[in-house]
Amino acid sequence: MVVINMPRKTINVKDKKITIMHEEKIDYISITDIAKYKSGYPRDVIKNWLRNRNTIEFLGIWESLYNPNFKGVEFDLFKKQSGLNSFVLTPKKWIEKTNAIGLISKSGRYGGTYAHKDIAFKFANWISVEFELYIVKEFQRLKENELKSKEWNLKRTLSKINYSIHTDAIKDKLIPQIVTKKQSQFVYANEADLLNVALFNKTASQWRKQNPDKKGNIRDYATLEQLVVLSNIESINALLIHQEFPQSERIIELNKVAITQMSSLINNKQVKKLE
Predict the structure, then answer these.
(1) For 12-52, what is each residue's pLDDT tens digit?
(2) CA 20 to 30 Å from 158, out of 7, 129, 196, 233?
């Protein structure tokens, strides 16, 4: 049975809870928990394992393969001393002296010695071949569950992206279209219609013909964003009129401003709060 406890994960192996820690995108398995299968004094079990010459050689080869910062000189000293009755080595000492990354020593609530899965399985094998096989089986089950979870999250993310594409398509309908050459050359009798075309891409009369069942006018159905932009381009239009810009030039500039501002406001969270 696999049990997931964030931020740690655990697997139950023959009624023993084995903690798994994710560090730097790598899984480390608690060999302190594994050692409890053999004895109620897991620290002593780990120390005895580290005294073994085969263990030191295995750890040294593993570090040489995966750790460019591994200190080989210190490793050679440990290898020479291993097997002697006076030789004692703790995980913390091994890590500090050789700059090892295969073992991690933790203190606190989730304290203990953790090992890369390659090393943890080797340790489990030293304790019991049967127990190692059960650990490998449960660990693989955990990874399969994680993969299924990732696949589910991927589908969920894709669903969100599709939803976003849909909503963006709706937003695109609100962003003004670029005025045509014909529209820019047309002389509008009412300056209000000039603003309508710049923002809504249609005059008031065109809107009424398209929406015969609706009461009021085009501005009564404007969104909050559109009303904000309308107020802004009214001020800009007044300034352009004062500067004697012809209507054909003003509508192009106002349309550019409307497109830019609508694009910005549609994604503005503060405006959404006002709505």
Answers:
(1) 888 889 999 888 778 999 999 999 999 889 999 999 999 99
(2) 7
